[in-house]
Write a structure and sequence with these properties.
heterodimer, A: alpha+beta, Uridine Diphospho-n-acetylenolpyruvylglucosamine Reductase, domain 2, Alpha-Beta Plaits, 7-stranded antiparallel β-sheet, 16 helices, globular, B: alpha/beta, Fumarate Reductase Iron-sulfur Protein, Chain B, domain 2, 4 domains, 5-stranded mixed β-sheet, 4-stranded parallel β-sheet, 27 helices, 9 strands
């Protein structure tokens, strides 16, 4: 990047907020995937006003701006493939207000999600969205990707908690959407539009988040199944019985053995699947009754064993296991490709059957785990990228996975987003009419195409 | 980059397996201060890989990122794939020293630190500073205020200086009080002998009181941690061989250290020399004998102290004790044995204190930021004493406490036990 521009940006964010050594550019070239491309400059702003000034220069100079939080995304959405500015929001990490009367938190985009949760829980409030990356992802990133997590089954996704946003538009103007109101039908819902827009429409700098009362009690069960199909059927039986657990997670045999190899928790290695089920609420009796009912349902569906966590420590261990599935898979093979297809929950058993069939047809191991309760599955293909033949089969397998989801009335992605990795499949999923309309929206927001260019939509 | 083929470089499994999940960012003290990927374990792994694969030059800036790591090993523990970013950063320092050795490191770690007598001579001015009352004068006349903040913080790191190094005072053999139930070796670390001689004196008293006859070989050299930290893994091997040979001459089943850092290095000798002909077995035999003082004391029928210490006490987990040796219950249980002592956990008790050996000197800003976080956590407990079995942590925390104008005493857990043994009249221990 030209020296005069570096100097100009340094005046806005100070020299400590502008990075451009080869080493610094190199570490801002990736996210949680294997994609890489270096930015020309890294900027770490500390206020909405600074972001505004940076964007104004970027617009003037036609420099791409790729916004990122802690870069744990799984679609390369924050990888700056066209160079330009990597705008890291991590230093905008203030919790501006926890309004206990209205149960609303006002935060800057760079607040780490787990930090927000800890802060509101001290006030007996609760921010439910819990992506596996809660400790290494930011609220801004969660909103930009509309992140999910296990608890979505009962509590909904990130977007369900965003009441309002402060964002910087592509020309440097600031827009405030929504507000501290629960109901708001004045004009288009721009809050919802920006949520999940992956930094392509505007740069989210602050958010108003809805909080709820903290559930006082949790009961967590680990249920073992000899037959993966039984586990999948059980999910629907529980929900059909009118019980909505906070989480209903499925982990298959390969994933279990990976966790066990990494963490030695004594998980069963001879089972085809386990379900991790948690009920929560503010009334102990209700929570206990629900978990007891679930135990009965599981047993009638062919569960081999139901174990209920005896204390908080056991519960923490179970969740630690669940959260480590995805990374622990990396121990199994040199590479893995995880998707997050989502199907109507009734179709889960069928989706699993088809994925297993696909795995044997393509001769590639596919590990299945995920948020079975809301139909969001994470099939992970294990492979070795150094083998070109395998890599070709992987690409075919991914396409087939997406087709399975679409055929069953589902969608490509439940919580990771599109980024660059799912771009080739989006037209098939949404159709030309929708894509054209969305491209029009992008053009209205960002006529110069400087905000995270090249993401979500295939090139014309 | 052909020359890399001739060097001892990290195995590619140590960086290729990184899946870039970002879990390590959450636990890294330097990342959490700067919120900049460059200061993160994931960033350092990426830089190591790019440097070794030739995509980036092994520039001074790249190597500096390896030195910016505090080697607290929190990332090693957090990594779900099982790679060790902190170890990789240390290995990269060794790569650099092989390509472009720094002469001063040879002099410091090869010459000075490898020879106890020279170390004692070199630190003599500090003892004089204390002994002739100059230090008291510096405080009384508030001369410290004239120092730069870094010099002030470094001065505050110095514990009360002993009149003579403990190495010169301790006998080769200290007899057990009463019948000898255990014959143990004592590895007297450099910092313990030169700076914290009162602590190690307490260690020896406590051991003797509990039926140990203690052999303290005087010719021990540095455990090797400082050399490793500065990229001279080759000198660590040299130090290791000297120390192993020395302890082979004394007949003991256990080798005790009261320094968390020494302990973690000594326990590593077996691994370090595993591939060196003739040394694999000898080093393994040595390392299996090494025990931290708290580990040893809690494994024997320890005499319960009858004296009281009426104070609120918190405990800081040294990285080299908790993560490197898996010891965290023992020192707490030891403290809880003392009547009157009110034990209180601090938040983030195993978060690095920012010492990391010499970061206060080499990376002042980062070190003090991490230190202030630690001090805030200590302050929140309203403890009167903070206890920790590592001289590096103790110096750092003492400096942080003074820097924040607090009055909290920093001691080794074994010192509190020693005091409790000597407060037999139920006399409440009072601060001096």
């Amino acid at each position: 990047m030209e020296k005069r521009l570096i100097a100009e940006f340094s005046e806005i964010v100070t020299t400590k907020g502008v990075l451009y050594s080869p080493e610094e550019l190199a570490v801002y070239s990736y996210d949680g995937t294997f994609e890489e491309h270096r930015p020309d400059l890294v900027i770490l702003p500390q206020s909405t006003e600074q972001v505004q000034k940076v964007v104004k220069i970027a617009a003037r100079e036609r420099i791409p701006v790729v916004t990122r939080g802690m870069a744990s995304g799984l679609t390369a959405a924050s990888v700056p493939f066209n160079g330009g500015i990597a705008l890291s929001m991590t230093r905008m990490n203030k919790i501006l207000e926890i309004d206990t009367n209205n149960a609303i938190a006002h935060v800057e985009a760079g607040v780490i999600t787990a930090d927000l949760q800890a802060a509101v829980e001290k006030q007996n409030l609760f921010y439910p969205p819990d992506p596996s990356s809660i400790r290494h992802s930011t609220i801004g990133g969660n909103i930009a990707c509309n992140a999910g997590g296990p608890r979505c089954l009962k509590y909904g996704v990130t977007g369900d908690y965003v009441l309002g946003l402060t964002a910087v538009l592509a020309d440097g103007q600031v827009i405030k959407t929504g507000g501290k109101v629960i109901k708001d039908v004045v004009g288009y819902d721009l809050t919802a539009l920006l949520t999940g827009s992956e930094g392509t429409l505007a740069i989210i700098t602050e958010a108003l988040l809805r909080l709820i009362a903290k559930p006082k009690y949790q009961r967590t069960a680990l249920v073992e199944f000899r037959d993966l199909n039984d586990a999948a059927q059980t999910v629907n039986q529980i929900l059909a019985a009118g019980i909505v657990p906070a989480t209903l997670e499925l982990i298959d045999q390969t994933a279990i053995s990976c966790i066990e190899a990494a963490m030695h928790l004594g998980l069963p290695l001879d089972m085809e699947a386990v379900l991790l089920i948690e009920c929560d609420g503010s009334d102990l009796e209700t929570v206990q009754r629900e978990i007891d009912q679930i135990e009965v349902i599981c047993q009638s569906c062919g569960a081999d064993k139901v174990s209920i966590a005896k204390d908080e420590n056991e519960r923490t261990q179970l969740w630690k296991a669940r959260r480590s599935v995805s990374p622990a898979l990396a121990r199994m093979s040199p590479n893995k490709l995880g998707e997050d297809i989502t199907v109507p929950r009734e179709a889960i058993p069928e989706a699993i059957r088809r994925l297993k069939k696909l795995s044997s047809e393509m001769d590639l191991p596919i590990v299945i785990f995920g948020h079975a309760g809301d139909g969001n599955l994470h099939p992970n293909i294990l492979f070795d990228k150094r083998d070109p033949q395998q890599w070709a089969r992987v690409e075919q397998t991914v396409a087939a996975e997406f087709q399975i989801a679409l055929d069953l009335g589902g969608t490509l992605s439940g919580e990771h987003g599109v980024g660059i990795l799912k771009r080739p499949y989006i037209q098939n999923a949404l159709g030309k009419v929708s894509i054209d309309l969305q491209k029009g929206i992008k053009k209205t927001f960002d006529p110069l195409n400087i905000l995270n260019p090249g993401k979500i939509f295939p090139d014309d | 980059m052909t020359e890399l083929n001739l060097l001892k470089i990290p195995s590619e499994n140590e960086y290729l397996n990184c899946i870039r999940c970002g879990l390590c960012l959450a636990v890294c003290p330097t990342y959490r201060e700067y919120l900049d990927e460059t200061a993160s374990p994931r960033g350092r792994v990426a830089l190591a890989r790019k440097g070794l694969e030739g995509e980036l030059e092994l520039s001074s800036n790249l190597i500096e990122q390896m030195y910016a790591c505090f080697a607290c090993m929190a990332c090693n523990d957090a990594c779900p794939v099982g790679i060790h970013p902190a170890d990789l950063a240390i290995e990269m320092r060794f790569v650099q020293e092989q390509i472009k050795p720094a002469a001063w490191k040879e002099k410091l770690f090869g010459g000075l630190i490898g020879r106890p007598a020279k170390m004692e001579l070199a630190t003599l001015p500090l003892r004089i500073y204390e002994a002739i009352g100059l230090r008291k004068l510096v405080y009384a006349l508030a001369i410290r205020r004239l120092f730069s903040s870094q010099l002030r913080d470094m001065e505050a790191m110095l514990p009360h200086q002993p009149t003579r190094p403990l190495r010169q005072v301790l006998p080769l053999e200290t007899k057990a009080v009463g019948e000898t139930r255990y014959r143990v070796g004592f590895f007297l670390g450099c910092a313990q002998s030169l700076m914290f001689s009162e602590e190690s004196a307490a260690t020896v008293r406590v051991l003797a009181r509990n039926g140990c006859t203690i052999i303290t070989p005087k010719e021990t050299v540095c455990c090797g941690m400082p050399a490793a930290g500065y990229g001279r893994q080759d000198l660590v091997e040299k130090h290791a061989k000297q120390n192993i040979a020395l302890f082979e001459k004394v007949d003991v089943d256990t080798i005790i250290t009261d320094c968390a850092t020494c302990g973690s290095k000594l326990k590593e000798y077996g691994e370090i020399l595993a591939h060196v002909p003739d040394w694999a077995e000898r080093s393994a035999a040595f390392s299996t004998k090494v025990q931290d003082i708290s580990q040893f004391l809690m494994s024997i029928p320890l005499e319960k102290p009858t004296g009281r210490i009426d104070a609120r006490v918190t405990y800081h987990d040294p990285c080299h004790l908790k993560r490197a040796q898996g010891i965290w219950k023992e020192p707490r249980n030891l403290l809880k044995m003392i009547a009157g002592l009110e034990f209180i956990e601090m938040p983030e008790s195993d978060w690095c204190c920012g010492s990391a050996g010499s970061q206060l000197i080499t990376h002042y800003e980062t070190s003090t930021r991490v230190m202030d976080r630690k001090v805030e956590n200590i302050r929140s407990t309203r403890a009167e004493i903070v206890s920790s079995g590592c001289p590096g942590c103790q110096m750092q925390i003492a400096s942080g406490i003074r820097r924040n104008n607090l009055a909290i005493e920093v001691v080794h857990p074994v010192q509190l036990l020693d005091r409790a043994y000597h407060n037999l009249e139920g006399d409440e221990w009072k601060k001096d």
